Amino acid sequence: MNDLPAAVLFACTQNSVRSPIGEALLKHLLGHRVYVDSVGVRSGEIDPFVIEVMDEIGIDVSRHRAKSFDDLEDTSFDLIISLSPEAQHKAVDLTRTMACDVEFWNTFDPTLIEGSRETRLQAYRDVRDQLKKRIEERFTLDLKPPH
Asked: 8: which strand partners?
């Protein structure tokens, strides 16, 4: 059970959709045991649909402030999970100066979906649910609270 990394960084293109979802989910599940952060290649603003679909499962991300790799104050991560090809390139670059593992979880960008509000929200839910499943498969989830 000690195979958990001490610090995990989620990375995507703008730190406004995919990586904040990954960060919030892992913090929710293992934040008491793992330091979790997220960045983008560029920093955008948190997407309102992300706030809504995370709120549906009881996780508040409304205070998330997007940041880029350049904004990182701490670079001592054991694992970087990149969620877009652009972020994967940046993460691999970081391994030249930082000893960490990089995993590429190519994740669909739901902002590309057009259509009704419900159609677009469903795309965000799908990304949320896929990331949750992937996190649960990747990390040892000892969900019993510490005594």
From this structure: 36, 79
Terminal-to-terminal C-alpha distance of the chain: 17
| Whether 76 contacts 97, CB under 8 Å | no
> pTM higher than 0.85, yes or no?
yes
Q: E strands, 48-143, where?
A: 79-82, 101-104
The pairing of beta strand 79-82 with beta strand 101-104: parallel
Q: What is the mean pLDDT of residues 46-52?
A: 97
Domain 7-138 indexed as CATH 3.40.50.2300? yes
Q: State the alpha helices, DSSP H only, in 40-104.
A: 48-55, 85-94
Ordered by start, the domain boundaries in the chain are: 7-138
